[in-house]
Structure formats: structure tokens, C-alpha cells
Design brief:
The radius of gyration is 26 Å and the shape is elongated. The chain is mainly beta. It is built from four helices and 28 strands. The chain has two domains: about 30-215, Immunoglobulin-like; about 220-260 and about 275-445, Immunoglobulin-like, CATH 2.60.40.
């Protein structure tokens, strides 16, 4: 049941993609099928030689967010527009403005790239929903911070509502590749409601641009993996070897160092030319992040799982990390410890997917590799007698995402197996002892 379902799910997804005419490099996420980042281009007013626009980005992805150093939004002008001024953001380059005398535009490039301003920017340079360093939260975790915006004054002589053209060829980096943006679409002008809710204004014109994410475009190798273990088997199923690259290979995604190396501190504190390159702890799987699912205890009417997320990157902290787990027993989740939880129901009537993330100021920061580079929690499930079993890998997850990226699962034939019939009498005795010892914990869980 368990692991074969994940294989079947993958096959069904591929068949669905082929039927829809979608290539694997395009974006389709079965757990967030309509998730996207929408760029809204609102023309607020006309000027003597152009217009003033508010450009907003709404992250409608339920669990995928943009971390520091933040987003970069680019486009190509339809004509010969320039940006006279900006607030809430800035272009990375000014471009060639040599033909202008007197007032110099903020940017003269035909294909500008805009970045968010940093926290602490002077108030006169800010606008609403700006100045977070390009960090964009996911919709479920923090909807108030899932919006980013900047305002621009565009210059092009003779521009009117009949001659204005939308920018084209939008690009969104976060900060690397992964997002593909469609063509701008003219939509109903946006209405803006005043804070006192007694007056509303509306944009002169509005274009929408939809950007979707593909993990295939974002990176060549996976970024996380899953390991498994259980109380009924001594076997610990590690992440598959070379899941995210191999050690001592010139083509791998980064270098690694042993955790007990005497040079560890000096290497981490002196990144040199590879300041942005990952420095991983040497492992057999070479993944920056590992998620471990341990089937911990079996009660009469409940069962317990322990989840541990470990960071193996010495140069990366994960702020506002999140985990998405698919398992059929989430419909009967009784209690969760030290993590936030929200069910995700992308398909009506099916509650088998959970989004988990850290508690603010407690464990919402996953530290870099080292003794503190992990977070953990326990889940208590009620047993539905019609479906519950420890047989055939049912107790293990079907799919796990970390920060929106699909983690590599071990092969199904490697999953911890139940003891055979000759061992069941011994295991039954152990179960009875475990039940007695755990009864106090179960009572505590229901307080």
C-alpha cells in the first residue's frame, strides 16, 4: 500500500501531464495545483509623458516562499519607456541615460530588473508592502507578508490609455531560476479601498501576469531526502546514496567537510570565493536537508510518529521553514507537539496532506549544520480500524516536501518490514510491555 502508492501517484501525475500537454519542466504541483505568484501591474494615474504604476506580487502558493536574498522581477518594455522614479524598490542597473540632460531617469534599460528595498529604508522611499529584502512568505504561513509591492513612474512621450502597452517577457527569480511567467493579460481594473473603508478608488488599467514554479528548472539535483525507521524493526533506512550528488566528484553541486574536521571552524568562517556556494557536511546522500520519519510507539487505539528535520549545510539557515507531508492517517491526527499544523485539501473530500511549520520564536529557524541544526516534533494519530496497518509500509509517508521542494524517498523494497510469524510471539510480548509503559504518556497526551 504505502510506498507503491507514491510510485502510482507519480505515474498518474506523469500521465496527467502528458494528457494536458504539459512538459516535465513546466509547473504542476499535485498538492498545490493552482498555486502561483501573480504580478499585478496597476496604472494609478497618467502623467504628461507617461504614467504612475503600482506593481504588486501576490504569493498564492500555499507552502512555497521566497527566502533571502529575495526576489528579482524583470521585464522588457514594449516601446522605449524609461523609469523616472521608484519607491519601495530599485533597479539593479541604471543603464545608458546619456541622451537625457537635466533630470536623469532612475533606469533607462530596455530590460530592467527590480529588487526589493531592505528593512530600515527611509520612510520617504517606501511604499506599502515593501522593504523586506525580497522575502515573500507563503500564503498559509503568513498571508499578510505574502504580498510585496513597489511604485514606479514610467516615462514615454505621447502615452495615453489608447496607446499604452504592457511590458512583456516577465521573469521572476527567487533569487535563482524556477519560475516561468506567462504573458500579461488585461483584466478588470483593481479597486483600492481606503483604510477607513468609506471610499474606494480604482486603477486606470490593470494587467495580470501569472508565474508558476518548477523544481526541474530550479536545480539540477534534489535538495532533500527522507530516511525511515520504526520501533518494530532495527533497520534504519537511510537516504539513497548520492541522492543529491556524490562526494569527491568534480561535477557535484558543492563541496563537503567532515563534521569532526579540525579545520571546520576556519572553513565556515572564511568562505572566500564560494560565499554563496553550499558547504555541506559529508554524508552518503549529500543532501542539504534530511527529513527522518520514525514510527515511535503503538498504543491500543493510537500510534505515534517522530519527525526530525536536519540541516547539513554550514552556510544556510532556513527561516520560516515548512514541511508538507502526505499520509492517509492525517484525517485522524489527534495531537501535534511543537509544530504548527494546517490540513491541505487540494481535492474535495480528501484530507491526507498536512502542512507543518515551526512555532515563532521557538523553532521557526532551522539553524545551519551542527549540534543545533535540527528541529523535531511528534504526531499522535488515532487508529481507524478499517484502514490502519503496519504492513506493507502503510505507516510511512507517501510524499514529503521541504520548503516546497519534493524530497527523495527511499525505494519501496528498502522500507522497514514487520517481523515474520516466528517472531510475532516475542514482538507481541514487547508490544504489551510498551503499552503498559506508554499508558501514562497517552493519558498525558489527552490532557
Amino acid at each position: 500500500m504505502g510506498s507503491p502508492l507514491s510510485v502510482a501517484s507519480a505515474i498518474v501525475s506523469l500521465l496527467l501531464l502528458s494528457c494536458l500537454g504539459i512538459s516535465p519542466t513546466e509547473a504542476y504541483d499535485p498538492l498545490d495545483p493552482i498555486g502561483n505568484i501573480t504580478v499585478k501591474w496597476d496604472i494609478l494615474s497618467w502623467t504628461s509623458d507617461g504614467y504612475v504604476a503600482m506593481v504588486s506580487m501576490y504569493n498564492f502558493q500555499q507552502y512555497r516562499h521566497i527566502q533571502a536574498p529575495g526576489w528579482q522581477l524583470g521585464w522588457t518594455w514594449a516601446k522605449k519607456e524609461v523609469i523616472w522614479s521608484m519607491s519601495g524598490g530599485q533597479t539593479t542597473e541604471q543603464g545608458d541615460c546619456s541622451k537625457f540632460h537635466g533630470s536623469i531617469p532612475h533606469c533607462c534599460k530596455r530590460d530592467p530588473t527590480v529588487v526589493d528595498l531592505l528593512p530600515g529604508t527611509p520612510f520617504n522611499l517606501q511604499t506599502a508592502n515593501c522593504c523586506r529584502g525580497g522575502v515573500l512568505s507563503s500564503w498559509v504561513q503568513d498571508p499578510l507578508n505574502a504580498v510585496s509591492a513597489f511604485q514606479i513612474t514610467v516615462g514615454l512621450a505621447g502615452t495615453t490609455n489608447k496607446t499604452v502597452r504592457s511590458p512583456k517577457k516577465f521573469t521572476l527569480k527567487a533569487p535563482g531560476p524556477g519560475y516561468t511567467c506567462g504573458n500579461p493579460k488585461l483584466v478588470r481594473p483593481t479597486r483600492f479601498v481606503m483604510p477607513d473603508k468609506r471610499r474606494a478608488t480604482q486603477a486606470m488599467m490593470t494587467w495580470n501576469v501569472t508565474c508558476t514554479y518548477s523544481q526541474f528548472l530550479a536545480q539540477k539535483m534534489p535538495t532533500c531526502c527522507v530516511s525511515l525507521s520504526s520501533f518494530y524493526n532495527d533497520t534504519v533506512v537511510n537516504c539513497p546514496r548520492c541522492t543529491c550528488g556524490c562526494r569527491n566528484n568534480a561535477t557535484d553541486s558543492g563541496s563537503c567537510i567532515q563534521a569532526d574536521s579540525p579545520h571546520l571552524a576556519s572553513v565556515v568562517s572564511h568562505p572566500g570565493k564560494s560565499a554563496n556556494a553550499p558547504l555541506l557536511q559529508c554524508t552518503s546522500h549529500m543532501c542539504p536537508v534530511r527529513v527522518h520519519w520514525h514510527v515511535k510507539l503503538n498504543y491500543k487505539e493510537f500510534w505515534r510518529v517522530k519527525i526530525t528535520i536536519t540541516n547539513f549545510n554550514y552556510r544556510m539557515n532556513f527561516t520560516q521553514w515548512n514541511l508538507v507531508v502526505q499520509h492517509p492517517n492525517f484525517d485522524n491526527l489527534t495531537q501535534i507537539f511543537s509544530f504548527n499544523y494546517k490540513p491541505l485539501t487540494p481535492y474535495a473530500g480528501l484530507n491526507d496532506t498536512a502542512m507543518l511549520w515551526g512555532v515563532k520564536y521557538y523553532n521557526d529557524l532551522l539553524m545551519e549544520a551542527g549540534p543545533s541544526g535540527n528541529v523535531q516534533s511528534e504526531l499522535l494519530f488515532w487508529k481507524d480500524k478499517s484502514s490502519f496497518t503496519f504492513d506493507k509500509g502503510w505507516a510511512f509517508p507517501r510524499r514529503i516536501y521541504f520548503n516546497g521542494d519534493d524530497c527523495v524517498m527511499p525505494p519501496p523494497d528498502a522500507y522497514p518490514w514487520l517481523p515474520n510469524s516466528s517472531q510475532r510471539s516475542v514482538i507481541s510480548t514487547l508490544y504489551s510491555v510498551a503499552m503498559i509503559l506508554a499508558s501514562g504518556s497517552l493519558l498525558w497526551a489527552h490532557r
